[in-house]
Write a structure and sequence with these properties.
This protein is of the alpha+beta class and 91 residues long. The chain is built from four helices and four strands, in the order αβαβαβαβ.
Length: 91
Amino acid sequence: MSYERLQMASSKAVGTKQVTKAVMKGTARAVYIARDAETHVTRPLMQLCLERGIEVIEVDSMQELGRACGIEVGSASAVIIEEPAYGSNEG
């Protein structure tokens, strides 16, 4: 699995709580979920992404996902976040 898109993203978040917040706020563009993560953690997030029409990319391991995000530990999920358009009133 290629992590290039995630690695190149200028704005991303790591961890299921942060990913869920981004999905709920409507700023999530693509969610990465590790296949070896606990299903009781990832299943609600996958369901939420399905309901909201957010792209889900399954990856092999939490360790690899963490590494792709630049952290030393594994992560069950990560998200690429849409940044507000230049000149918008958000922020």
